[in-house]
Amino acid sequence: MSWWWAGAIGAAKATTNTPYFPFLFTYLLIIIINIFCICICIIVVQKKFEDDEPPRSFQSVGLVIGVTGIVGNSLAEILPLADTPGGPWKVYGVARRPRPSWNADHPIEYIQCDISDPNDTQSKLSALTDVTHIFYVSWTRRPTEAENCEVNGAMLRNVLQAVIPNAPNLRHVSLQTGGKHYLGPFELFGKIPPHEPPFTEDLPRLKAPNFYYTQEDILYEETQTKDGVSWSVHRPQVIFGFSPYSLMNMVGTLCVYAAICKHERVPLRFPGTKSAWEDYTTASDADLIAEQHIWAAVDAYARNEAFNCSNGDVFKWKHLWKVLAEQYGITEYGFDEGSERLKLSEMMRDKGPVWDEIVKENQLLPTKLEEVADWWFVDAMFGGAGLLDSMNKSKEHGFFGFRNSKNSFISWIDKTRAFKIVIVEKAEISDIPSIDKKKHQTCTPSDISWCEQILYAM
């Protein structure tokens, strides 16, 4: 069992103060003998099966719906690992578009399918009779929440009605929703009172349309049609992860914004409210969410439950904004105290040609600005106060996974760079015009209380 899963379930190896040096020679001798025996076995096995290698035997078969999304991409990477619980896993990955290059290295069977089309879904997914677990991490955006309920509900139902009757060994369906379960839909942000944080899973539904509620009802209904099929619901906060195809890609969008600011040699201004800048908030690492999906799929104590999923620490965006600026070598950054709130959906509206220049000059993966930047999502997330949830229920049921949010933020920036979606060079930019210091807040150690510094360093 690797370190990542041991950490996820809270396992810890006991340590003692017993000196090991007297036994060192014995240990080395045993290791040498084992290596010799293993080499002999490998030679014999290779000789015996070099012309007739048997097919690999799988214990579980996962179907990831939305495999090119921000969490689907993490599931596609983690599920096939040799020591993933419930494994070895065979993995089918479903997405609407052709398989992108940044997803191609994952050892999965890729299926291009439009799950909003019941005929296409039935034709392609009903044939997957060996599926044991469904991981549903897909959604689509429509202009109104009523349309979101209709379309996203139909997509989930199409998948479940294609797979459940035809997969005799199906054991579990996990559904990903999110923090809007406690806040309401995007169109009603600021118009209806959300629940008071920290959010817990037992809070009642808000009296407003919400496609998350629609999906949960469909999940309960469809899984009851087959004996022995359990379910779980996963509610992350703002996700830190990697997927140029995600509709809510916070890290990628901020990287694109920073790249444009650097290219145009302008300050990296925070596009949100003072509350979003100052308040404590939480985030959810995409790999952590994938781990929780897998845990719930294979642990009996997690069945038929809903779980929040966040990193387990808190942070302020004014702290991570400094991290983002440092990644791009931008020295002027922060929040404009007295100016009108900046909205990226307005500021970036005509920046397509600028992005084209950045892609060409840096030989990045060919993309259009609208493909890699979700301005509307950043505007929505930075439009209000910080969001806090509780991970107590997950821990009480046995999931102890966590992430350091600052490190998570940096690691996903690095991954976005590694796949040449953006370029990140930590070069100093000295000729950016200054912002009025009386109206501008930057994050320096003297501005941060000792308590905030401790939380930031976690």
From TrEMBL:
Query: What is an example of a GO molecular function annotated in this UniProt entry?
Result: oxidoreductase activity, acting on the CH-CH group of donors
Matching entries from SUPFAM superfamilies are given as: NAD(P)-binding Rossmann-fold domains
Q: Which InterPro entries match?
A: NAD(P)-bd_dom_sf (IPR036291), PRISE-like_Rossmann-fold (IPR055222)
Q: What is the lineage of its organism?
A: Eukaryota, Viridiplantae, Streptophyta, Embryophyta, Tracheophyta
Native source organism of the sequence: Arachis hypogaea (Peanut)
Q: Which CDD domains match?
A: 5beta-POR_like_SDR_a
- Reading the lineage from the top rank, the first entry is Eukaryota
Boundaries of each PRISE-like Rossmann-fold domain copy? 121-364
Q: State the UniProt keywords alphabetically.
A: Membrane, NADP, Oxidoreductase, Transmembrane, Transmembrane helix
Q: Transmembrane region positions?
A: 20-45, 57-76
What protein is this chain from? Answer: PRISE-like Rossmann-fold domain-containing protein
Task: Name a Pfam family for this protein.
Answer: PRISE
One BP term from GO:
lipid metabolic process
| Key word Transmembrane present | yes
